[in-house]
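USER: I would love a firmer grasp of how sequence relates to backbone shape in proteins. This is the protein in question:
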Amino acid sequence: MERVMMRVLVVEDERRMAAALRRGLQAEGFAVDLAHDGEDGLHLAREGDYDVVVLDIMLPGLSGYKVCERLRAEENWVPILMLSAKDGEYDLADGLDLGADDYLTKPFSYVVLVARLRALMRRGARRRPAVLRAGDLALDPAARTVTRGGVPIELTPREFGLLEFLLRRPGEVVSKTEILEHVWDTYDTDPNVVEVYVGYLRRKIDVPFGRNTVRTVRGAGYRLAGDGG
């Protein structure tokens, strides 16, 4: 049976890095197209049938944020992994709020990049709704608000990021390592901190409402009930 080659669009203005990414990804069996500015990247992403887009944030013409925002406004749900030299929590939040699926900061591990791309491809193109919901629990990434049955819930930035990550993967079991990688953007933090923050989150979104939204899967991680618990 003929193997289907996965198509990747890399939008990166640093030409040396873009060329290195193309060589490396081609060696892994991907078909790779390059764009060096936001306008070309947007055009190719609109016209090409890509399995995933690797999108730098700081681009000439249109920023990666703008490219992502326009694609999602057109209901183009191609998986997007954003790259940036920035490493702040709010830069991560901005990219995810605009509809990106994943995020890596430079310098990054090439092994991790390839693993993230393969994970995005397995999940495929998913809708990125403006408001994330599980039953009567609603999170608005842009407005940075959370409500349950219309009742506002105040969360810290870290609690908000944790809930958003879980809401984007309802019904899936996610490990502490995955949560650290995406919400804390690191592998090095003690995994037990995740358990602490899950406890904080439950006390705010579940306990006052008599619900069980975030469930522990012993030995594996956590799963958010798609119906809100």
The first helix runs from residue 15 to 27. The chain has a mean pLDDT of 86.
